[in-house]
Amino acid sequence: MSTKLVSPSPYMVTAVSLLELAEQVSTAAASISQHLRSKSLNEPNFSPTSQGLPKDPEIENAKKSLLVASKALTVLATDPLTHLREVFFGLNESSALKVAVEWKVAHILSTAGTPMHISELAKKAGADEYRLLTAMRLLANSYVFAEVRPGVFAHNFSSIHLTDRSTECFISYCMEVVYFASEGYSESMRKHGSSTKPNEAAFNVGLNTDKPFWEWIHGNPDLCERFNECMKPMGASSYARLRTVFPWRSLGDALLIDIGGGNGHITFRIAQEAPDLKVMIQDKEQPIAEAKQLCPDSLKPRFSYRVHDFFETQPVVADVYFMRMVLHFLTDENCVKLLKSIIPAMKPGARILVAESVFPTPGLLPNPQHKYVISQNWNMVTLLNAKERTFDEFAEIFYAADKRFKLRQWGESGGAPSSEILEATLPDTSFVESKL
Questions:
Q1: What is the pLDDT of residue 241?
Q2: Candidate list 107, 117, 155, 328, residue with the active-site label
Q3: How far is CA 369 from the centre of its chain?
Q4: Which residues is 324 bridged to in the sheet?
C-alpha cells in the first residue's frame, strides 16, 4: 500500500492563543494579498460580481491557514454557550434559504446589485412583508444578501448564486428530503442500531417509508429531477480539481470503462483532456440514453455505451475501470461485491481509478475546508447507511476484494467534492478474455 505524500504546509496552524491565531491570520492574509497583486488580480469582496479567491495552488496553503485560524479566532471570541446556540440555530438559516428560494427573492432583486425596500420586495413576491423581512435579516446576518439600509436589501457575492436553478434545486431538495431524514437520525440509532440495510437508514425513519432511498426518489419524478439538477455544479467543481490531480493524458489510447457513469458529463471532459482516450459508459438504460444525446459530436467516435448492472461480472476487458461517486453510495459489503465483479476482466497492467472524497485526518483545529466531506458523510449515513471513507478504509475494502491490490492516492484528502483519485492495481493479473 502506498499513498502520495503531501508536503507539510508552512502555514499549518499550530497555535490556539488569541494573539498567535491573529498573527497567523495576518500572515496568511498578507501572503494571499501579495500574490493577488503580483498577478494583477482583485481581492474578493462582497459585491455580486466578486468571484472569490482564485483556485491557485500557490495560495492554497495560505488560504487553508486563513480559514482555520480565523474560524478558531471567531469561536474563541464568542461566549461558549452562545457558540452552541449558533450551531443549533443553523437550522433556522436553512429554513430561511428555503423561503428565499420558494418566494423567488433572488430573481426579484436586481442582479446588478440595485437595492430594494422590503415593502416592494414583498409586494412583488406576493409574501407577507414582516415574515419575509424576518427571513431576509436572518440571511443577511450570515452574509447571504445584504441589508444596505434598514429594511433595504440587495444581492451580494453569495446570494447572487440563488438565481442559478441548480442552487435552487439543491436547497429545495435538501429541505424536503435531507432535513426530514436528518430528523430521524437519533431515532434510527435506537430502532436499527448498526444496521447497514439501505431500507433501515435515518431516511426511512424521518420520511416514514420502507423503500430504500434510490427506489423512493425515482418514484418521485419532481424530486428526482431536482436531485439530478443539483448534482451538476458539484460535478463541475469536482472536475476542476480532478483534471489537475491525475495525469489523464498519460493514459494514451487506452480504453476506459466509466462504471456507473450516468450521463457522461465527467468522462466527456476527461476525454477532452486526454485526446487519444477511448471511453465506454456503463449504467442503466435511462442515463445511457441521456449520455448518447449529450455526447459532443467531436467525441462520438471515441465513445461507446453498454447497459450493465455493476454488481454483475464485468463483461469488458479494458485498461482502466473508472468510478466517480459510486462507492460512497454503497455499504462496505457492496463495495467489495462491486470490486470483485471487476477483477476477472482485469488484464495485466489494468487499473481501477476511483474518484471520491477521501475523509481527512482531523488536525489540531477543525478545518472549514473539510466541512463538505464531513457533512457529506452525514448525508450518506442518513440517506443510505453508506459513508465517506478514509484512505485506510478504502484500503480495507480493496483488500477484502483481493489482498493483492496495491493502492495509491492522488490529491490531498478533504478537497473539493469527489476530487481525490485512488489508483488500484493488481500485480500479475490473470483474466479471462471476453467479448464486447
A1: 75
A2: 328
A3: 12
A4: 355
Indicate if 211 and 343 belong to the same structural domain: no
What are the 10-residue block averages of pLDDT along the chain, 436 residues in total? Answer: 44 69 95 95 93 86 92 93 93 96 97 95 98 98 97 96 94 94 96 94 96 93 87 71 87 95 90 95 92 94 95 95 94 96 95 92 82 91 94 96 94 73 81 36
Buried b (16+ CB within 10 A) or exposed e, 292-320: eeebeeebeebbbbeebebeeebebbbbb
Burial class from Cβ neighbours inside 10 Å (0-12, 13-18, 19+) for residue 418 reads buried
Is 306 in the same domain as 412? yes
Q: State the pLDDT at residue 434.
A: 35
Q: 78-90 in b/e burial notation, b at 16+ Cβ within 10 A? A: eeeeeeeeeeeee
> Domain check: are 284 and 151 in the same one?
no
Report in angstroms the alpha-carbon separations of 58 from 44, 45, 55, 335. 17, 20, 9, 36
CA-closest candidate to residue 351, choices 301, 400, 284, 424: 424
Instruction: Please check whether residue 137 is in contact with residue 99, taking contact to mean a CB–CB distance below 8 angstroms.
Output: no
Which of 77, 99, 122 represents a domain boundary (last residue)?
77
Identify whether residues 159 and 209 lie together within a single domain: no
What is the model's pTM? 0.86
CB 280 within 8 A of CB 306: yes
Residue at 12 is within a domain: no
* Residue 328 annotated as catalytic: yes
**What confidence score (pLDDT) does residue 201 get?**
96
β-strands 146-149, 278-283: how paired?
unpaired
Three cell numbers, residue 91: 437550522
Any idea what the CATH number is for the domain that residue 309 is in? 3.40.50.150
Is residue 386 included in any domain, yes or no? yes
- State the residue range of the domain holding 412: 245-425
Number of structural domains found in the chain? 4
Q: Are 359 and 376 part of one and the same domain?
A: yes
